[in-house]
Structures are given as structure tokens and as C-alpha cells.
Amino acid sequence: MKNFAIGIDLGGTNLKGIIMEGDGSFRHLTRVPTGGQEGGTKVLENILTLIEKLLKKEGSSESCIGVGLGTPGFVDDDGTVLGGAENLPGWKGTNIYDPIMQQFGLKTTATNDVTITALAEAKYGAGKGIKNMVCFALGTGIGGGIVINGKVYKGSHGMAGEIGHIMVDPNGLPCTCGHKGCVEQYASATGIVNLAKMLAMKFESDIPSTLKRIALETPESLSAKLVYDYAKDSDPFGQYINEIACEKLAHAIGIIINTLSPDRVILGGGVMKAGHIILDTVARHIPKYCWQQLWELCDLVESELGEDAGAIGAAALAFEEIEVEVHV
Amino acid sequence: MKNFAIGIDLGGTNLKGIIMEGDGSFRHLTRVPTGGQEGGTKVLENILTLIEKLLKKEGSSESCIGVGLGTPGFVDDDGTVLGGAENLPGWKGTNIYDPIMQQFGLKTTATNDVTITALAEAKYGAGKGIKNMVCFALGTGIGGGIVINGKVYKGSHGMAGEIGHIMVDPNGLPCTCGHKGCVEQYASATGIVNLAKMLAMKFESDIPSTLKRIALETPESLSAKLVYDYAKDSDPFGQYINEIACEKLAHAIGIIINTLSPDRVILGGGVMKAGHIILDTVARHIPKYCWQQLWELCDLVESELGEDAGAIGAAALAFEEIEVEVHV
């Protein structure tokens, strides 16, 4: 029987698990509630139950090389959640590796959920065959995943890739991290909605803007999707917000290009459902923020894998990190 | 006889060459003029003559694994200089690898001069034993070297590490690269002198400043060393310039920390002769620009190797990249 890994994607709402072989083929996609509001112990319990379910479906754990897990926040080398997972109260401080070893005799490797999404894209999606790449996940915040020499780069303490907090304007908007002008305050879903709320009063144009009216009259109905629906429909206020969001994102991407000279930058996450308008606008602004030569050597593309990317990447991480330990 | 590599550091004034063994011990340090003003062909000729001299001193090329070269600018995978070496007219477009292979039968690997300095620091200097680190070389400009998993990271096209052009202020000072607000316009030797020239008129303080008087009366006598001599001697204008330069540098370092979460950031280059005043001021400002958790896991230190770092790093690069090719 072929070796397989268990891949688990810990989301704010659901835990998603798969059994995956080394070639990327997967089976037994299983979803259970995360139980995030019931505290860290409950989340861990639900993870253990999910692993049990998956192994039961598989029939045996004999060929299982281990468990890969993607979680919001950071995980240290011993498997303890260090923080950065503010939407999961009590998850910080939880040790993940020991209980899985105790209950199933399986090694676990865990890292940030965006990092594993980048790994999934690198191995089986928009980054397939690409040596050096960086993935920006434009969601509620902005997360990042870095692939160096075909391998996911987590830094020595599992915490690299905080590219949503690249400060693009030292006098800019206050960020949840305590600093100012982080790129996620402009180009995340939250940032886009905030920009629309903040700028609606000031925005002037000859062409009437329905989006502006919505932002003034029912700001609570705003979403990144709505802003982009209007932007794509030539609404001048929507287009104005798009320009600001994409220019700030281009600044951060330009810094990444100057630093790492990646072969490819991948844009993913919920905001990217808006599609080409973002790619096109960002690409237009990037030349202002990095060396032309480096930009010419770098593609800017959309992510390819859908919402299963997290679980796929988690299993891929297990193959990358756990198999190595066994054979060396 | 033990294997050795030839390491060559191509500087604006001198070519420096060594014979180095895998343990870092080196001999036959040789210096010849670069001949940069006589064009790229002459520079190449001088490199070939230097290799010849070194091999003559060694007596034989039998145990030579190859040549490592550090050069200003970028070099592609085939050994052709792509640019970024503006102070060496005609050097761009020169192929380095083929002539060395033809004349000596030796493989060559070349990369940016700051990158190899970082490699030297990583293997034998301030970064010894450190897995992930970034080196800022504060000289005429600001160069960068990145070490990932103990190996120098050049990117797929040999051009990564342009961290001197991280844009820390989109409305900032114009840079030679055509953009605005690159960190090297503030924290390089050139940047520091320019800040002193620009800000002397505006600077007000209760304590009289000799440096301000010099900047107003004989601006041509300013140097980064002079600014720092006064700053260390409690001159208020010198201290003001130091704060600006170090805060901008801290912004760029903060971005690097958020992105790569390095274990260590090394500051080197001529400006660092000023020593601890820079380390201390930068360290004070960094917390404003990155995640506290990541900064706590990162040291900020001064480079250890002196002016031979380039040649040492070049030879180390040869061991890293050429030996691998031979044995795999």
C-alpha cells in the first residue's frame, strides 16, 4: 500500500481533513465544525476526532507517514501555537503534536494556514514547477506564503511570511498589529470595505456613483465583493477604491520582488474572486516599486486551487517535512 | 593535497584574489588594479591574469574545484553580467564563465559582491552557525545578502537581495533607481551626507552644532564618517541625522523581519565603522516596524569580517555551488 499523509486545514468555521498520497491524489475529504468558540481544548478534541474518522475510513494507519496541519497564527518547533490566531480564543498555547503522537503514534508538522496554501499552490496549483515564489492571500487580512527552492519557507521559528504587515505608509491607517500603514489595511477585504467607508464623503466625480451612495447610506451592507462588482461595472468610486488598494498591494509586492526576486507572485484568497481587475491594476502599479529587470523576470498570476488548497497543502507539508526525518 | 577554490572580489578599485580550502583557511592573498575605467574587456583580462598568478603561486590547478567571483551588479546563470554595475563601464554584457573555462578548464560561479560578503559572514563571521540571516551592507549604496537554510539565496536569476531599494517612503527622496524613498537614500554613506546637506538650513536646536555649521559653510567636506564622529560627540545635528538614517533603516529591516523572520540581521559596510551608535539607534526603532514576536527571535549585530570578506565569500560560493555539481 502506498504511503499517505493526513492533511488538516483548521479554518475559523470548519476543520477539513483529507488522506493524500505523495503524488497529490487525495480521498476521504471530511469536514467537521472547528468549535473555535468553545476554546482551544475543544478545537484540539475535534482535530483528534477528525484524524480518527479519516483513519477509520482508510482502514489502517500502517502506511500513514504523519499529519500535516495548517492553522491561523504561528506554531513553534514543538507544536505549540504561539499566537496570531485571534479569532480562535484559547487556541494560543495549545500543544498539537504531543496529543496526536499519544493517541495515534503519528508525527505531526504544523504551520500557518496561508503558508500551506502557498505550498499547495506551489506543488499542485499556480506555482507548479516554479522554484521561488510568494503567495499573497487576500482575505479578512493578508497572509503570505513563501516558497524557496521549491520548498515552503517558514523561517527558523515557523513564523515567516507576515507580508500583510509590510508597512507601506508610516503615516497610514492604524492596523490591528498596533502599527500604521500595513498593506492589509488597504488590500484585504476588511481594508477595502474600510477604504470605501472612509473615502465616500470625500470622493467627487462627474459620473454618479451608486457605490458611493451605498457607502454613505448603508455602509453596513458594504463588502469587498460589492466594491468590486461596482468597480467592474465602471462605477467611478469602485474604480477609485480599486486603484488605492491595488497600488498599496503593488508597493508591498515590489518590496518582495526587490528582496527575493521570485519567479512568480500568486494572488489568492476571497478578494481575488474579483479576478483580473486586481491582477491588471496591481501589474500596472508594480513598476513604480521595484527594479524593472526583476519585475520582467516575475509573473503575477491568480491562485488555481480552490478551497481545498489548505488541506492539500497540509498533507504536502507532512510529506515534505516528516518523510525527510524518517529517511535521513 | 586538499581541494581548494579561487575566490575573487571585484571592487571598484582593486581585484582581490585568494586560494581557500573548504575549512575557510586561505593563502596567497593577491591584489591587482581592477582597471574599471578601461572597459569590460580589460577587467576580464585582469581577472584572468589574477587567476593565473594565483595558480602559479599554488603551483598546480589539479586540486582546484573552480573559481568564485563577487562583482557589483547581477550575473545570470550563464555568467553574463546583466547590469547594476554602473561604476564599471562596459562590464555589463561581459561573459565571465566561458573565458575562464577556456583558459584554465575551471568552472566559475559568480554573484553580487554584497551577496558573497553575506555568505562569508554566514560561514566564517558574524553569522556562523546561523540558519537564516540577512546582511545589509551600508556603503556608497546599500546592498543586501540573504542566507536561507545556511545557503546564500540569489533567487533564480542571481539578482535577489536588492534591499537597498526597499521603498520606505513613497513620497520620499528621489533615488538613482528612478523611484522615490528607497532606504539607501537615507542610510547609505551617500544618503547620510545628503541628509546633512539638505537639513542643515532647517535644523534648530538650543545647543550649538558644529556639524550644522560645517554642513552650511563647507558642505563638500561632509562624509558619513564626519557626521557620525559628531553624532558620537553629542552634536545635536549629528544625532538628528543619525535618528533619521537609522529609523528609515529600521523600517526596511522591520519589513525583512516580517517577511523572512531571520535569526540574525547583520549590518556591515563602511558606514558601520561608526559602530554601536547605529546598532543601538536602529534597534530602538525596529519595534515600530515589525511583529514584536519576530523581532524578539532576531539578533541585530555588526559584521565581523573586514575587507577580505568579499574574496573569502567568493571562494566559499565556489565550494557551495561547484562542489555540489561535481559530486551529484
Arithmetic mean of pLDDT of chain A: 92
Rg of chain A, Å, rounded: 21 Å
How many strands in all of chain A?
Answer: 12
Tell me the β content of chain A: 15-25%
Strand order of the largest sheet of chain A: 3-2-1-4-7
Largest sheet of chain A: 5 strands, mixed
Order of helices and strands of chain A: EEEHEEEHEHEEEHHHHHEHHEH
Unreliable residue stretches of chain A: none
> What is the distance, rounded to the nearest whole angstrom, between the alpha carbons of the first and last residues of chain A?
22 Å
Assembly status = homodimer
**Relative helix content of chain A:** 25-40%
- Structural class, judged by helices and strands of chain A? alpha/beta
Largest interface: A-B, 44 and 44 residues
User: What is the 3D shape of chain A?
Assistant: globular
* Total helical segments of chain A: 11
Q: What can you see in these coordinates?
A:
The structure is a homodimer. Chain A is an alpha/beta fold. In chain A, about 40% of the residues lie in helices and about 20% in strands. The first copy, chain A, has helices at about 40-60, 95-105, 115-125, 185, 190-200, 210-215, 225-230, 235-260, 275-285, 290-295, 310-325, and strands at about 5-10, 15-20, 25-35, 65-70, 75, 80-85, 110, 135-140, 140-150, 150-155, 265-270, 300. The first copy, chain A, has a 5-stranded mixed beta sheet with strand order 3-2-1-4-7. The first copy, chain A, has a 5-stranded mixed beta sheet with strand order 10-9-8-11-12, sandwiched between helices. In chain A, a hairpin with a 4-residue loop joins strand 2 and strand 3 (about 25-35). At the A-B interface, strand 9 and helix 8 of A face strand 9 and helix 8 of B.
